[in-house]
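Continuing from the previous page of notes. For each protein in this section, the sequence appears first, followed by its structure tokens. Read the first protein now.
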Amino acid sequence: MDLVDRLYQKIIEDPLSPKVLIVPSYSQGHQLLERICERFGSIFNVEVQTLQGMVHANTALELARRRLRLLDEDQLFWVVRQLMLHQAEAAPHSYITQKSMVNPGVVRKVHQSLVELRMAGVRSGEFHSNDFMNENKGLFLQQLLGRYETFLREHGLTDLAGLVDCCKPAANDTNFLILQPTGWSRTEWCLVKKIAGSRLHIIDFDEPFYTNARFSNNQFTMFRAAGSLAEVREGFRRMQAEPAPLDHMEILLSDYERYAPVIHSQAEASGIPSTFSNGLPITYCTAGKAVLAILDWIDEGYPVSRLTEMLRHGCLKIPDQQASAGVWIRLLERSGIGWGRHRYVAILHSRNIGDEQQELGMKLHEVIQGWFDNLPEGSEWRPDQLLEWLSDFVEQHVPVHSSDDQSVKTAIQSWNTRLSGIMVGPMTSEWAVRYVKGILNSIRIRVDATPKPGAVHVTSIHNGGFSGRYRTWIVGMDERAWSVPAKQDPLLLDEERAAVSTNLQLIREQVKQIRSVRDARLSLICGELWLSYASYDPGERESRSPAFEMLQMMRLQSGDDTQDFSDLERVLGQPYSVMDVLHPEVRRSTYDEIDAWAQYLRDPSGTKDGWEAVSDAYPALAQGYLARVNRQDERLSKYDGWLSMNIAEFPSTDGTLGQKAISVSQLEKYAACGLQYYFYSVLKLRPKDIPVFDRTRWLQPDERGTLLHHIYREYLEEVTESGTKPSQHDRRKLQMIVDQALEDAAHSIPSPSEHVLNKESEGIRRDAEVFYMNEEGKTEQPCYFELELGTSEGEPMVLTLPGGIQIRLKGFVDRVDRIGPHEYRIIDYKTGNTKRYASSGYFSGGTQLQHALYAIAVEQWLHVTGRDPEARVTEAEYAFPTVRGRGEYVRRKQNRREELGDIVSKLLDSMNQGVFIPTKDVKTCTWCNYQAVCGSHAEWMVNKRGAAVNAAALGSLREVEEID
């Protein structure tokens, strides 16, 4: 007789009396009763209960009469945490001495130890600190248990252990049937015996599978695979190849959290209906992804990237019917917020957003300000309040697409209600987020505790084996997953448990019981049994060995007890892979495109070369391969940037520029790297400039440069009355301008910390002092500041170069000084150092044209506007008025204009030929924004530049590159 037979015999001994079947879970009880009905027919008068459910029902009236409230384990966790904080404050020399040590992991371990002591019937006055190897630890537990008992008593609360006094014997002739319990505490036995009395009947489990003759009659199939994904895929292949209905299969997972997501993804991909006894994590629905993502947003300092990611994946909605998710993403990315709650408030204000997006900016400001209004700051965070905030967030800002989303929302509300009446003290945002994430990770969706018709049932090895299905597949039978580690509890070592109370179960005994229960439960399996494991873990890059239980089952199958692991290796054969081409097609099914490719590549004479088929199936991949081959070839091609272009879009040698204007920086960019110019100016590809949180930096380099330019311009405009009078320098006035500029910048671009703000502000003040010292000794007259090169109508100016070349030029000149009668110098501020602007490189291969082009442009502007018809710009200066630049400057005499015309003409000619090749200087690729696109292209171009076959195409560009 097996367990089902024995349970049935006990039920029919007194068929008319009510019976309660006490089991670890309701699903196990219902599955056992279904097996009885399948085997013997209908039964009645049997109710399924868990021990806790039965005790709660028995004590409900007595608790109400005594005005006591029962707390569950999760609520008691928070009580323990608060008591630990109080004890850390009251006893500075205690075992846990600092509040910082009261973290989730420590609290969880202490809570577990207190529960074990309570369930063993141990009270605070019944053990001593010298029962422990560390007396401080013993004293800590004794005092904390005393605080716990006092807290429950004073607040009218109780836990499961406190219900012993409230239990009453069952009033009728109910018989209580219980499956042989293992690992029960003294309190659990007291509770069940007090209720059931003499009417308690214990039903023994079957003997372990390795001594069970009936179990050895099962049909065994074993295989291994190279990774958990490959293992699951092979099982699904076999399932689809079998004619048996899917609802004849139960899958037992040795590691449910590891394998359930893999099973789910493969079941969905192959269209196999499945039920999951323990459900799935909340990340499998929109609401779950949203709440975890928004917690990451809080925990990481409110980075914009988290919000844009949520919008992109449809996990966040902004209540506005006129704007799509893409609009909000672009607004956030271009806002320059980057991170920090104060930056959102400052930057999203309408005056900091472009005119065309003011309305959207204000709407977004309203939404995010509403979030921040209900989020605390500093160390005033509380998990219960954060859960309430999350509940409102899901309600207002998360698209609810399914019942799973609604389940997550309901679970969050339920948790918030459970914690509302519990002491949950304030803490930092880091700890609050960590606690709430732990709560959310415990929530499960799509929970089907019992098997359903027409679906494969997936459960854990600890809950499975009760369904009675004909085919069972045990997944993950590797040694690591099947071993039960006998790790000592650091708070209650086995020696200490024995000293404190004989009712405290030792860890080594718990391990033995877990193994014996598992071995006995496997005996319930009958029919066809599949066994598999992953012999390799790709994540950890290590091999795995099969569990000893797999060897035992092979011995049962063969009847040979002398077989060892080497025999098992031979039986298992080669591991299956995700794309498997090494095994014959016997009993295998093709259920996705990966298997289709694998079948195509199989050949009796060996494995086929699949490149031709891949190229035909994926043209883009074939084009990429062709591009790589051509780039490595000697001859220049379109894959190197030699293109057929519309020349109307580019400057031409006859002096036109079509309808487009060009900036000096674009010409210099083309001379430095034609491919970069093509990406930036032709294709208009821009790297996303999204500020990233850096706790050591306030201003980005471009923001710092803009601020210094603003300070220098405003100061010179004031001391020269907008360039009309000689400079009247005033250090105090400069300091006032600097202070005001820093204040404005701090308001619009919040700093990560006060320390960083002060440090960078001091650096800018030092730069301003360098600027002041340089200006104080000058005799030249500053005349124009931030001079825009253009016509009176705001159009780009047409610049005439030597040789008759005309280009439409746009740009700004930082400063123009008068250095003599009708003689001028243009100045361009640089915030770096002088290394790049060595005096030996006048044009630097076309990469430094600004000084020469701007000199001609300013001279022409002065003539055309009538400001000075006799003006001559004779000098251009790169000024470095910062501490880093040491106040130095590089001046260039404007005496090589004929060469300038020739250089520009050759660059325009090269553009017109469609030449947009990579840079000559490979080192610059290191910091290029397009490096990920180009790869090693610049290195491959080194030899091509000098190849005779490319001379005609590259002639003009190479001539420019040789000019210093």
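Done with the first. The second protein uses the same format. Note its length before scrolling.
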Amino acid sequence: MTSTYEFGILGPLLVRHSGAPVHVGAAKLRMLLASLLVEADRVVTTDTLVHRLWGDTPPLHARNTLQNYVLRLRRALGSTADTGPVRTHPRGYLIETTPQTLDLRRFTSLVRLGRTALEQNAAERAAALLRQALELWRGDPLCDLPGDAFPELRLTLQEQHLTALELRIDADLAAGRSADVLPELRALVEAHPLREYFWTQRMLALYRCERQSEALECYRTVTALLIEELGITPGPALRDMHARLLSAAPDLGRLPSRTEAASSPKAPGRPTLPVEMTGFIGREAQLEQVRALLSTARLVTLTGVGGVGKTRLALRSAAQLAASYADGVHLADLAALTAPDLLDRAVAEALGLRDQSARPPAEAIVDGLRDRQLLLLLDNCEHVADAVATLVLRMLRAAPGLTVLATSRHRLGVPGEHILTVPCLTLPDPDALCDPQQPSERSESVRLLVQRAAASAPAFTITARNRAAVAQLCRRLDGIPLAIELAAVRLGTMTAEEMLERLDDRFRVLRSTGMPGTETRYQHTLRGVIDWSYTLCTPQERLLWVRLSVFSGGFDLSAAEAVCAGEGVERDEILDLLAALVHKSLVAVDSTGPRARYGMLETIRQYGLERLGELTRHTGLRIRHSAHYRAMTLRAGAEWFGPQEVDWLLRLREELPNLRTALDFCAAHPDHVGTAVAVDLARTRCWFFSSVLGEGRYWLERLLASPLALPPDLMVSALAMKVWIALCQGDNPAAEVFLAECRAQAAGPEGPPLAPLTFIEGAHALLVDGTSESTSRLAAAREQFLRDGRRGDAHMATMMWAMAEAFLGDPVSARAASREYTAEAEASGAQWARTWVRWCAGLVELRHGDPAASLTPLHDALARQSSFGDSWGPVWGVETLAWAVAETDRHTDAARLLGAAHRLRQDTGVALTGLRPFHDAHVAAVHRVRTALTPQEYTQAWGYGASENSVLLALRTGSNPHTEPRPGAGRAPHPRRNEDPRPA
């Protein structure tokens, strides 16, 4: 990202590039940019952006429209996806900023520096820093956007603005400028009459200007206002200032700092937050989130799985915010409570209350809090959550100055509660860690491992040898801080590689030893932490947790109901039990897609699998799991080549981890289910769409190696799919062997349907032999599939037939086949099929018409496939665009596209050498381009294409048909379109 962009949201939306204003005029583009900026440097999901742009009534194809807006925004900013600040992410989009490029980040940084300077009694420096911060405000935040946009953010930012004003006035008062701030304070108390701290500052300023009577009148005025408007009396800070004015206290010459107020004797028995014994790693985003939430909410609960670091985050946040509360921060650690009845006394003790009367402790707590302004940190609430919820609700209703920060493995359920789920530490990018040029400690999890290992295993360092193992170790431990700290201890006695080998037994390996006298309920083991969560669940919740561990990579509600119901858990109970596990931070839910998606951290799942192994009937659970995903692939096969085609492809790709688990189980327990699943995944082109072609072949070969006798039609279909995948990989020798097996099986006495064999023989004739015989065979296969009611397979035969006519036929037959293919796809409503129709139309135009006219359909097909997340279509789309661009004499662009296409083939494992018509066209394009360019020019352009984002490069090139040819480059001779360019 270039550092010359500047963005502003503290006022009207502002964009500058290299100091010059950038006009972003369209309302939707401004809303899109603002949506990214308010969550700068974090991924904003596609669904969130769609909701912000269109609310509850998004347009048809909203995701495609959003993608178009992103392209327009990048164009307005004068940037590209690779070089500009707006970046694409698998889950959505984000905008990259720095403290120098976004005014909100500069404001936050300057306020933090100013606060620190004020606490260090550097009043002049503090005032200067805080003035710089306030000068960044150009008006109300995002005031040029609709009034209902970002309401909570606007309130939060306005509160931060007022807090910065208070701090700056504190600094001016500390610097002796009491008279200078009086006019400003008069305006502020008029604008914010219920904000007590402005009144406190005004009273002090008046007193210092020898206007004591006016200062005391201020107190009477604000007291009446508070009673009339809110029914409360002034808070401790205001009452304290009043008392000091009446007594002419000698310290009125200076304003007590907020830190002094928080540590004043007015909080008897106030406990001190525990000192951190180890370094605090990362969590900058979460600290900022806690600060923002506590600025507007009175109850914030940090939830998350055991060992994720909720307590450390809460303690660090409380320490940073202590100066904001006149009566400080009070910590009540509830971990040791053995019964809910002891809660009230534990909280009273934490608050320093020593009530000896016979009244209930809760009443004493309420009376003690009524006039105090403090932050109460309730740590480890999960095992007494109901009692905590009751007490917290009572305290908040009675004490307007109270704010509660709680940590719990599940929410408290109190009205007004704000939940912040504490994520695991950020994980390393395996590719980056394997690159010796990249910093090895960029991710939080690796930084924590290195820091803790420095104490327990001082000889440990990250080296070129163990970088990949360290990355995998942190990833397999899910970035859970407790697990990583325990792993760091083990690095004193084993290497990271050895630990990885034993990680399937992580609950034994990751236990802490050699710490006498520090036992807790967690027993210093990862198992102890998860055991504790297990005991907090009801018997039904435990049973569901264990059964859910059979899923890999997540699941939806229908899968949980189909697989986990029965024998103690009814189907209609699954949803409520899932919700309970979500609330207890054992299951995560992602509701941004069309279906809610649930998942567990691998550590939680492994624990469930261990418990599952203890059950006597777990095989039945795995059978139900396999049957569910067999039913899913069966339905996908039936609905393939229909309006839901893309949805099915995306869903099957999402379910690949579960499909692998089901296939693995079926391979170990041979039956027909596994082979049928693998065949349907190949028929629906899931292996292709998801760019895991080799895996599809692996499963077919493994399942077909079973001695189990399959139904003849399933066997022929499976063998045909093996041939098809081998052909697409360009592995002709294997394809020949598989084809012979398929023919032998089809010739058996059972006489199975011949449609799969006819199809694969036609595909072989096209892709290997390059003969016109392919067209008749593919046309025959199409009719046979239709006769058998296999509409999707019939369409695949139509596509290959149209492709054969494009490569081998004459202009009349090629265009006729293309028209029939188009009509069939349009009638089906299948969106992915329609992209191939556009590609085929471009191919026909390229080979039998005007190459320049082929660019539009080829570009259109590639753009649509890219918007679906298709990994297969672009392999051929970019290659074919290279041929078309070469035919239009844009030789440098063509060389770049040839390099880009090569990179895509490397990524997907495709080889053109075994695909004769594609290989011939490729050789012709390379010959044409090499003839027009010098070797150096060709190599340079080809290398550029191979190093860029292949699809984006092709889309840019294909959408710009008017590129100046290289001076002196004429039209180079090349083989005719139907001529074999290979040497005889």
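What the second structure shows: Residues 256-271, 514-524, 963-984 have pLDDT under 50 and may be disordered. Residues 151-174 form the longest helix (24 residues). We return to this in next week's lecture.
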